[in-house]
Design goal:
The complex is a heterodimer of chains A (115) and B (110). By secondary structure, chain A is mostly beta strands. Chain A is 0% helix and 50% strand. In chain A, strands 2, 4, 5, 6, 9, 10 and 11 form a seven-stranded mixed beta sheet that branches. The chains are: A mainly beta (115), B mainly beta (110).
Chain lengths: 115, 110
């Protein structure tokens, strides 16, 4: 049972490049979310999804897109990378469809540097 | 809007000292509350959670937290910290989404 698998673990991008961070879970969880972690700011919610075909914006959605075509996958796309997007990104999933009122499981994180 | 506030960003304690980390939240409806821990270089792990029932919840590694609804608080406690408790601690709350506080970095001196 792999849990939440997040790839890549490290990435360096040039300003203006685009890329997709992958997130997959094998626990049949309906709620999935993406966070960025920056020193002194905790984890800030980028986007979240309560089920396949349903996504919504979090606290810091600008510059990021998501889609949820299957229950298992929730990729995060950076459209045109900027140095301000240098951060550590975490994907998380939890069981509940309507509200995330169960434990969240986290991926290992992606350390992204934009130069 | 849903939000979480953690009172201290950095805490330094000696081994065997008692720990209390403050957490307050804002949300107009029913909430579920969590404390997560992140050890250096690792991802977040669940320490404890509160959904309903007894407002004093016990978690792993001797941690406990108390939910005080009237104060919108969920403070984390441990009677005697160890060097291995050095980590960053995050309070989190779910209303319609899972939101985290800014974190508290705990350093325990041996």
């Amino acid at each position: 049972n792999a849990g939440v698998t997040q790839t890549p673990k490290f990435q360096v991008l040039k300003t203006g490049q685009s890329m997709t961070l992958q997130c997959a879970q094998d626990m049949n969880h309906e709620y999935m979310s993406w966070y960025r972690q920056d020193p002194g700011m905790g984890l800030r919610l980028i986007h979240y999804s309560v089920g396949a075909g349903i996504t919504d914006q979090g606290e810091v959605p600008n510059g990021y897109n998501v889609s949820r075509s299957t229950t298992e996958d929730f990729p995060l796309r950076l459209l045109s990378a900027a140095p301000s997007q240098t951060s550590v990104y975490f994907c998380a999933s939890s069981l509940s469809r309507s509200r995330p009122n169960t434990e969240a499981f986290f991926g290992q994180g992606t350390r992204l540097t934009v130069v | 809007a849903q939000s979480v506030s953690q009172h201290n960003h950095h805490v330094i304690l000696s081994e065997a000292a008692s720990l209390e980390l403050g957490c307050n939240y804002s949300y107009g409806g029913t909430v579920n509350l969590f404390w997560y821990v992140q050890y250096p270089g690792q991802h977040l792990q669940l320490l404890l959670k509160y959904f309903s029932g007894d407002p004093l919840v016990k978690g792993i590694k001797g941690f406990e937290a108390e939910f005080i609804k009237s104060k919108f608080s969920f403070n984390l406690r441990k009677p005697s910290v160890q060097w291995s408790d050095t980590a960053e601690y995050f309070c989190a709350v779910t209303g319609d989404k899972l939101v985290f506080g800014a974190g508290t970095i705990l350093r325990v001196k041996s």
